[in-house]
Amino acid sequence: MSWGTELWDQFDSLDKHTQWGIDFLERYAKFVKERIEIEQNYAKQLRNLVKKYCPKRSSKDEEPRFTSCIAFFNILNELNDYAGQREVVAEEMAHRVYGELMRYAHDLKTERKMHLQEGRKAQQYLDMCWKQMDNSKKKFERECREAEKAQQSYERLDNDTNATKADVEKAKQQLNLRTHMADENKNEYAAQLQNFNGEQHKHFYVVIPQIYKQLQEMDERRTIKLSECYRGFADSERKVIPIISKCLEGMILAAKSVDERRDSQMVVDSFKSGFEPPGDFPFEDYSQHIYRTISDGTISASKQESGKMDAKTTVGKAKGKLWLFGKKPKPQSPPLTPTSLFTSSTPNGSQFLTFSIEPVHYCMNEIKTGKPRIPSFRSLKRGWSVKMGPALEDFSHLPPEQRRKKLQQRIDELNRELQKESDQKEALNKMKDVYEKNPQMGDPGSLQPKLAETMNNIDRLRMEIHKNEAWLSEVEGKTGGRGDRRHSSDINHLVTQGRESPEGSYTDDANQEVRGPPQQHSHHNEFDDEFEDDDPLPAIGHCKAIYPFDGHNEGTLAMKEGEVLYIIEEDKGDGWTRARRQNGEEGYVPTSYIDVTLEKNSKGS
């Protein structure tokens, strides 16, 4: 099947068909372009969606901790990767399909134009041959008619007796001329006819089939290119299916990683205050006034009630020992809040929460009304935050459990920083040794400022660690002793440690409270023992400062280079030595900054 033999006379139809093929190709290219735009917009919207719901991590405290949150953020990451794959699909389609189609459409238009021009030229040449043949034919026909007229004129004059011989001779010459011209036109017509027939045969059997064949091949290549683009269109999507499947599997794994028990435990760890729940309210016996009135009125009643009063006196004595408000609370005292929260100071400056019980008449009124006002820990925490103000360095504004966790986190961070500084110091020392052995590599003195800075950082970090460990030991001591204090409080019916007036009435106004002597606590930590000794420690040696030390941190002792100090406590492995000046000022100095000389009889003490 060939267009050249089957469609030899359908040049205009083939022209329209090839134009339709190119239009269809461009239409499909437009479809691919719109699909690319959809993919790009889809990917962009997905990325905007992920960006909208991703957390803005401004601090470590806001990082997601719950497994449900972490799973959601993992899903967002997978969705972001999925959006990236949609962009890959769009890029693949744009490069492999749309770009190829546009280039091929341009080449196709050029080729089609060339083939159609060749066909038109062949047709024009054939038409020209036909015109030449037709002209020679008409000329031959005209010359033949003229020759016939000349012959008729000659015959008429030859038969006419009246015609002169000259007229006959002239007619004869005219006949011969016309006959000769008719023969020449006849030969020319025959040659033109033969030429036209040859060109026509060549046109319809050689030229046109060749041109149509080229058009057919061009149209078939267009169809093949469309097929390849269809396949490439699908392959662009199929290539990313494995990665998209991994993204979806990641989302499923993120969903499976949600652990409700772990989230519940995180809630406990995040909000656990470490406080004990409020204890039972003690029973306040107001019938003592009734029994006293009866005993004052009649002697017999006092004898009858003596047994009861003895029992009640025993209870009253016990209550007199346990109650903080005394044996005779005043009934005219105004009712106050059932529970108040205030801070009590320890010798080392830290603060903790204590609870206070309202007067007896308030308890009885509340029991009668049947509406106990037990405060929630939310209100306690709110009151604590109001009284404490902004966050403190030792986290004393937090509940004990949260304070312990914060201190432990800070100690871990400081230890990591200390390890980095120690590694840097070791590297600088090694570099210094290399410079000393090979002076051409560098000046050892150029490393001295960096070494001094690193040592200052190490000393500062050690001081910070020491200080935070002291606070941590304080918190752990409180936490450990809270059980014993709680047991004692239960036995004594919640003897309060709060604000109390001399007559036993309770006030909630911080400006009107009468404070008693501060309650002494038995949990002194190491840090307090080191800095609160009344008697000065004896000197066990002396030292000389090799480097100057500013001593800005609390508990440290500033010194100048070459200064001589007394040693009152050796380095315990933390890099600090306790020293004293001649004027009695004491503090810690870095062991690496001094040259220590201990007395022989004092070493190891």
Features:
single chain, 605 residues, alpha+beta, 5-stranded antiparallel beta sheet, two-stranded antiparallel sheet, 64% helix, 7% strand, elongated
Describe this structure in words.
The protein is an alpha+beta fold and 605 residues long. 64% of the residues lie in helices and 7% in strands. It has 14 helices and seven strands. The chain has helices at residues 3-6, 11-53, 67-159, 165-239, 241-256, 260-271, 288-297, 299-304, 306-322, 360-369, 377-388, 400-437, 448-491, 526-531; strands spanning 339-345, 351-357, 541-545, 564-569, 576-580, 586-590, 594-598. The strands form two sheets. Strands 6-5-4-3-7 form a five-stranded antiparallel β-sheet, with no helix packed on it. Strands 1-2 form a two-stranded antiparallel sheet. One of its GO terms (molecular function) is lipid binding. Residues 476-539 are annotated as: Disordered. Pfam families: FCH (PF00611), HR1_TOCA (PF25610), SH3_1 (PF00018). Residues 527-536 have a biased composition (Acidic residues).
